[in-house]
Amino acid sequence: MGYMRKVSANDLRVMIIGAHPDDPDITGGGLALNFVRAGATVKLVAMCNGDKGHMSMTSAELAVRRRGEAQRSKAVLGVADYLVMDHHDCEIEVNLETRREMTRLIRGFAPHLVFTHRTCDYHADHRAVGTLVMDSAYLLGVPLWCQETPIPSVKPAIYFLRDAFTKPSEMRPDIVLGVDAEMDQLLEALCAHESQFFEWLAFDKGLLSEVPPREQLEARKAFIVKHWMIPRKGHDAQRFRERLAEVYGQGQAERINFAEVYELSEYGYQPGRDELGWLFPFLPQGVFG
Ligand SMILES: [Zn+2]
Fold first, then answer.
1. How far is the CA of 275 from the centre of ligand 1 (A)?
2. 23 C-alpha vs ligand 1 centroid, how far in Å?
3. What is the pLDDT of residues 55-109, one digit of tens each?
4. Distance 131 CA to ligand 1 centre (A)
5. Is the pTM of this model over 0.70?
6. At what angle do helices 59-77 and 183-191 cross, to 10 degrees?
7. Domain total for the chain?
8. How far is residue 242's CA from residue 238's CA, in Å, rounded to a whole number?
């Protein structure tokens, strides 16, 4: 069964469900900013509390710190909510309890659009979160499942966040979005995840000696661009240039340096071409025919 009634951008509800506090913003931050500007209600979710991503802090200290970082990112992005759940990093499992949790979470927000990890992503937590969303996709509309949480009047379309993996298949660029105009604000939001970009991830990549000091915000943004944005959003602008040209036209597509890419899951609502226009109101009008 499928149902989707057209709403104005002000009534659109969008949920980005990642594994860790920074996943929704790294992969979907440009998208979130576009939806916020269009007037939609955007909720970011991290299913894990981030308590393993550091080389010297204790897990308990780190979890508190990362909750604070997510809230600072939320303020910069202007999203309605940035929910950080309580699962420990590296420990979220796909089981009945977490399947119920995911169903309640999605039903409770009643989104038109859900974005989450592909189930072939590299981190066990990413795969688990993607799988939980897939496992909930059909169950969202099953009345006898999680009876205490009412079924919303909208069944969401579900999209996958980007990755670069090719097995079993490279992601399909159903939605492409040039995000050059959003990059500065997004980078400011990403700088809020200080324990990650300037400590743990820098340590993990052997880049600690390159980290600019805290007071040099512009240098910190450039550090994130060089080591995280060019390899992701820059890479996606290159590899999906043809798709960008279909959406933006050849001339504009060639000027896009940073792009976000989303693949429609076959399990959620399947929006028609006429519905994509109001579901993604910031994309060039008429592009979906
Ligand atoms: Zn992650």
1. 31
2. 5
3. 999 999 999 999 999 999 999 999 999 999 999 999 999 999 999 999 999 999 9
4. 14
5. yes
6. 160
7. 1
8. 9
